Amino acid sequence: MLGGLLFGFWRICEIVTLIPVLGMLAYFVDGFNDQRQLTPNFILVLFIVSVLACAWAIVTLFRLSSTRRSAHFVAFIDLAFVGALIAGVYELRGIANASCSDFSASTGEIYVNLGPFGYYGRQSSEGAQLSANVNRSCAMLKASWAFGIMNIIFFFITSILALLLRRHERERESREKVVRRSHHGSRRGHSTSSHRRHSSSSRRYYV
């Protein structure tokens, strides 16, 4: 019971933190599509992984009984998402040290072309002007990167909890088998005893 509650709690945490990532990265993907430009890998990888991970978390949360029975498979998929999220966070690592409140061509540490959303960091050695919406773009990317790191931890936790769920499920099944065997044995004993009493009472004795 406690294992199921903990698993459900962390699944909800995953869903709550992945939905903002989907919304923010979808904003970038839609902007690139509108301009008929290819979405950069550092956005696309984390976006795709977040979509799949969120869908997986929702399905396994609402089908918790099936999750218990196939807990080893659930744990394996969760670990796979841990690796995929690490890849997505690694692709977006350039935003880690960004200062989204202080942009200038002279202080930018990295240069990222965000296409229709402008540029982040040092655009050119001559110090060209940055896009007006770069602060919001930077903040959204940095938040997505942070939520990605959080979900690496969350999915690792749920993979461990899934294994514990399977262990508890096996223990419960073992107890139920013992109870069924005990109940079946007591019924057989009662039936045999009743049959013997009936047989003895139905005997006729002749002198």
Task: Describe the structure in your own words.
The protein is mainly alpha-helical and 207 residues long. It has a domain at 2-96 and 149-184. 72% of the residues lie in helices and 3% in strands. The chain has five helices and two strands. Strands 1-2 form a two-stranded antiparallel ribbon. This is MARVEL domain-containing protein.
Please give the largest β-sheet: 2 strands, antiparallel
Question: What portion of the residues fall into strands of 2 or more residues?
Answer: under 5%
The counted number of beta strands is 2
**Average pLDDT over all residues:** 77
Helix content: over 70%
Report strand order across the widest sheet: 1-2
Class of secondary structure makeup: mainly alpha
Tally the helices: what do you get?
5
Radius of gyration: 30 Å
Order of helices and strands: HHHHEEH
Unreliable stretches, pLDDT < 50, 5 or more residues? 103-110, 122-133
Beginning-to-end CA distance, first to last residue: 68 Å
What's the shape?
Answer: elongated
Transmembrane segments: 12-29, 41-64, 71-90, 145-165
Keywords: Membrane, Transmembrane, Transmembrane helix
Region (Disordered): 174-207
Protein name: MARVEL domain-containing protein
Q: What key attributes describe this structure?
A:
elongated
Summarize the structure.
It comes from Endocarpon pusillum (strain Z07020 / HMAS-L-300199) (Lichen-forming fungus). The protein has 207 residues and is mainly α.
Q: What is the fold's blueprint, element by element?
A:
Blueprint (H helix, E strand, L loop, with lengths): L1 H33 L6 H22 L1 H6 L1 H21 L19 E3 L5 E3 L12 H68 L6
Antiparallel strand pairs: 1-2
Helix pairs in contact: 1-2, 1-5, 2-4, 4-5
Protein name: MARVEL domain-containing protein
Organism: Endocarpon pusillum (strain Z07020 / HMAS-L-300199)
Keywords: Membrane, Transmembrane, Transmembrane helix
